[in-house]
Specification:
The structure is a homotetramer of 320-residue chains. By secondary structure, chain A is an alpha/beta fold. Chain A has eleven helices and eleven strands.
């Protein structure tokens, strides 16, 4: 093997650039050439590909977003387009592809693998919802951004005796809601993985007011409903002087945390080590604190991310 | 004079606690007693008042929100209630009142002054929209929070070649929009102080795309319209793959910046120095980098905050 | 069991307060009373003990330091003093003790357990050097503070083509150095767990300069030597326009990260669950992402923290 | 005028890149060409000069350090070298030079002006010690970094009842010490502009301990002495369980604050507006909140930065 390609796809996540650096560097230091592919699968098919240079890589380690850009490209669901992509990769002499991204990005890598082109998926998404790994690159940063926002909102909630309903990202997984909610002492956390009981939540808030906590914080994962919708439902059970806030895209970019950068370094290097051993067609990740690689087809077809729902019970035990 | 009272009122702003500390300490160190009044004018009328202790004050200097709480209290617009408030103050032996807050809070202090009770208004609000001062306590922190959020959003905008419309706080003043917009290299800033031309903004974005900048950032002050409304209008002029984001309450709380804390220290101490000189009935502030005190009645009746609209022209000269 | 006691001891670490809250709340919500012990073992022996109230606990979740304070107290190494402590605990009707702290703090808990008083050790220290857990409360925050400092220093190193030698905390463990060093793209990381070769490091820096990276970053754990000492040695091998910086105490306090707060919540609650099950005399922690409890005497006598030294090899593969 | 040159010189400061962007953009949008000069005056003399492109400028607005680099170059004190520099500028067709930097950098611009080459000095240094301006680009960021560090240290000081002596940057000016010291509730601030009385400081700390504040914070500007030296002196007056910390280079780089970026935008654009009006040989700055331009020769020869020493008296009135 002489050349590997790298692309990022799907929603950007903090730490993607640290992963790009680790993949490229680990490849270069092992004697390979690393090619960057701009704009995800779209750039792949269009041949928007360049040879990466080592000198510029260290300075991207702390930058949000992705220097390789991302782009929507539904056309890549078609076999013809996938084969076109492999043709382009062959033309550039690229023998293996490392894809950083979420669910959709993995499916691209899966298809390329099915057509015989060696691809490895590196989990990069803020939602933490990819099978084959306990944590994705970008989740820790997103959770910290959400927590910091909740801290700020707690200041206002306390000052004004209000209840805030805050919607955090997480379409299919409640991980950001759980981690930031626990970290910010939320009174209730609402996630897609478990039924919520709005009457019980409202009763708890009313009871809290009697017992000396006259403000509240409810964290809702976007996959359940919007903050505005939840607030409207809640208001039917009492006058909580409630406010709805949607954190939205601020959770996505920004300077990655140490944990996300170290995870990016470990996974990025691991992808290259596997390729050097002749392996491929893998989804890689971290499980029980150890690097793991699983068959990308089996992982995507037969497994699902398991949110640690016990954190919800934990929150019930430590809240006011 | 033996005793002064302190209250916070209106929306909380980062740095209010640093102001509370400076007022209380400056009073204590000059031999006065400082009384904290909880829940703004409501607590004043209800006698929710306590003697402050020096030992606990240093640790609030970096905390968001207000330890004296705030509360809505429209009843204070009535003369009867105002006189009731003065009665309570007299009962506690409080001879002068320092009020930290925004426009509405100032009006309370104005009324008390009109009824003969010495009051001083300290400008504390994130919107920077109070007459009699160039800068309010809380504005610098809010602007920094907004800028950091815009930085994050720029990462995503760049990665995905999108246009983001971001709504920042500022009901009557465009200051947060202007400062954060310039700081984050916005392509357009929309403020209540000046007519906007949405067609011109759309054309600029289209032109940018031709000239090599394929993403964009538009900062809209909430006083103009919501981000969603602006996005909808914008989309009529082209396909910008646009997104609307509302920063909302995250701009309010949080750890205050150095500038807000130093401003709070200066203004808080200045209020006490003026009271010690026998002065009162004043709105205080900072103008051209100097502490200033103006008649609170005249200031509120005859003056308006002047946003530095030249910053909009500046942004036009330095944007892409 | 009716009453549990909580104390913090040793160097403060971000997240200790979140652990105090979780322990106290989990106890209260299970029907127990929680007593706070001020100033560590000193306060224990002196009876500086108070009943904790639920209402004030949520607001400490994001505060650095420890609201229970800490104090040096070498006297607690003596059996007599330990028995005096148990006497005091009995007097207060406290039946079990949860100690948050580092190595020294654990030894106190071990001794109390040996004398028959049920104690549980919760790992709280920035150094990540406690046996029985993969991660300690405070480590993630400290690593992030160090990384942010290294990011800043990289800006200056790049602008001025300098080599910076930065000393981070970690007397017996290189974990902060490893994590922050990888995160900040260090050219070399020097830790107590492995011999360093200063000539090799100097040669690498010289070689880097030839290959296009004209600045450098070396992260040194304090357990190896000071930054100033390392710089002096390094300068004997070439003119690197080097600077020595010691991050020192800034790594200790501050707002805890989400990860540290969630870890504090999990471990704090776990301590109470174990006590409710009638267990005690335990060191608790997180291992391979799962909560674990081990005999505190065996853990302290027979085990040592294992730094993941493979991170050093990883850094060698991904650096310039 | 067709072409202007931009260089940064002296110690890097956060916001320098925002200034580079504003200067270049304002020039480009006015129809001029902007040339970047790498490595300060060294690069100028060596002809390390390139035409800047508009597309890459927006993304540097939030980056610390300087993309134009800096370098020591004592040779530029010699007339011969200065004339060589002008020769190079003429060769590149550059008709005016904008220099961002501190005292030393201004002297270079002064000399070029004396030799007839139109130069403008933009104040960029963290120390806030340049005549002709109330605030320099980089000061607000450095003060905020210092304040955040002091906040962290306060957590530890409070937890352990210690006194911390913290050395902040500021060789000739106490501005960082004053602003961060007031912001972090320091018990004493020691600056080069005023004599300090160590006995009085020690007595105050001892008295504080009696009155209920058992920890302390002393901020020392590096221009007075090192933290270690101050601690040693202090320890002669009592047992304060004191610690010395030097913040050092972390104050320099990092993401610039909103205030520093807006100041950079205003000053950068102002430099170009002046050049377009045919003016030059100027030091520009902000005074009493307004942009000002003064003769660079007169400013450097006859004026000195005036630290607002009244802040020291303010701190004495609001401290414990």
């Amino acid at each position: 093997m002489k050349r590997i390609g790298i692309l990022t796809s799907g929603g950007d996540a903090a730490g993607m650039n640290a992963a790009v650096r680790a993949i490229a560097r680990s490849a270069m230091n092992a004697g390979l050439e690393a090619y960057g592919i701009n704009y995800g699968y779209k750039g792949l098919v269009e041949g928007n590909i360049f040879k990466m240079e080592s000198t510029k890589l260290d300075e991207i380690v702390n930058r949000g977003g992705t220097i390789l850009y991302s782009a929507r490209y539904p056309e890549f669901a078609e076999k013809e387009t996938q084969l076109k992509g492999i043709e382009v990769l062959n033309k550039f002499g690229i023998e293996a592809l490392v894809v950083i991204g979420g669910d959709g990005s993995y499916h691209g890598a899966e298809k390329l693998t099915m057509h015989g082109f060696n691809s490895i998926g590196v989990p990069g998404t803020i939602d933490n919802d990819i099978p084959g790994t306990d944590f994705t690159i970008g989740f820790d940063t997103a959770a910290n951004v959400a927590t910091e926002a909740l801290d700020r909102i707690n200041d206002t909630a306390t000052s004004h005796q209000r209840v805030f309903v805050v919607e955090v990202m997480g379409r299919g997984a409640g991980d950001i809601a759980l981690w930031s909610g626990i970290a910010a002492a939320a009174d209730a956390i609402v996630i897609p993985e478990r039924e919520y009981d709005i009457e019980a939540i409202a009763n708890k808030l009313t009871e809290n007011r009697k017992n000396g906590k006259d403000h509240g914080l409810i964290v809702v994962a976007e996959g359940v409903m919007t903050a505005a919708e939840f607030k409207e439902k809640l208001d039917q059970y009492g006058d909580f002087d409630s406010r709805a806030v949607t954190l939205a895209h601020v959770q996505r970019g920004g300077v990655p945390t140490t944990k996300d950068r170290v995870l990016a370094a470990r996974l990025g290097d691991y992808a290259i080590q596997l390729l050097l051993e002749g392996k491929g067609g893998l989804a890689i990740g971290i499980h029980d604190n150890k690097l793991v690689a699983t068959d990308i087809i089996d992982t995507l077809e037969n497994h699902k991310h398991q949110t640690d729902v016990s954190l919800l019970d934990l929150n019930d035990r430590i809240r006011f």
